[in-house]
Specification:
About 40% of the residues lie in helices and about 25% in strands. Helix 3 packs across helix 4 and helix 4 packs across helix 5. The chain is globular. By secondary structure, the protein is an alpha/beta fold. It contains 9 helices and 10 strands.
């Protein structure tokens, strides 16, 4: 059974159809890679799912609940967790404070109470312990007191994954998680995604240009081309299909 589903999801910018009636279902316990050439609509499709963009037509459903009219913040509370190509952090706070805020927000939502002084004080120790546990998972605990603004790009990407983990979403959405990272930094993020895959209750969506990463991590690949879903299946089958060779791999070879 699917956890997340899009039905005829479409967005138009004037006369241009950036995502064209994409229907796709994503089951728990699977990692689906979304690939395609530049301008294929991959990030736009992500933005429609997570609520950064409002669809012209179609629906986004999570656990059967229609999220189509909800803003991004409400979709996050419903269980959609999104990491971006560009980091989305509080630069003037410390690493620990960034994660602690995310943990506190999750606990406040679970208890249906606001972020008042009493709840922050009473939960302070537990929240800090949880934040430190997550920072240890992403190999960032030694930098817990560092200001985010001074972190190198790779550490900022790791911290954004930590924030995503703190929100405890049902669906993890990664948009090129290793973008801008060097060869030493990228394996940490990829290892985190492998560990998230072990939780068979979670659904993972991954936009990624690096086909070696896709081959290693994906249980399934869907291909977008000119905003249209053109292939969907097992990685080996999709990568070998003529339409993908022409629309994706062929473009990549010409650009190389």
């Amino acid at each position: 059974m699917s956890l997340l589903e899009t039905r005829d999801l479409t967005i138009r910018f004037g006369g241009h159809v950036a995502v064209n009636a994409v229907s796709c279902a994503f089951a728990p316990g699977t990692l689906t890679a979304i690939v395609g050439p530049n301008g294929a609509g991959k990030t736009t499709y992500f933005n429609l799912i997570s609520g950064q963009l409002r669809a012209s037509d179609g629906q986004v459903l999570l656990g059967g609940q229609d999220l189509s009219r909800l803003p991004a913040s409400a979709r996050t509370r419903a269980g959609l967790g999104r990491a971006f190509q560009l980091t989305n952090l509080f630069p003037h706070l410390s690493v620990r404070e960034n994660v602690r805020l995310a943990v506190q927000a999750t606990r406040a939502g679970a208890h249906r109470r606001g972020l008042n002084l009493w709840s922050i004080w009473s939960d302070h120790r537990a929240v800090t312990e949880r934040a430190d546990q997550i920072l240890a998972d992403v190999a960032m605990l030694p930098r817990a007191e560092a200001a985010v603004a001074g972190l190198p790009h790779g550490d900022q990407r790791k911290l954004e994954v930590a924030l995503l983990m703190a929100l405890e979403p049902q669906v993890f959405m990664f948009d090129e998680p290793t973008a801008g990272m060097n060869a030493a930094e990228a394996p940490v993020i990829l290892d985190l995604i492998r560990r998230l895959k072990q939780d068979r209750t979670k659904t993972i969506l991954l936009v990624e240009h690096k086909m070696d990463v896709v081959r290693e991590l994906a249980d399934r690949i869907i291909v977008l081309h000119n905003g249209t879903l053109v292939a969907d299946g097992l990685p080996a089958e999709v990568i070998a299909s003529p339409i993908v060779q022409e629309a994706y791999l062929g473009v990549a070879r010409e650009a190389a």
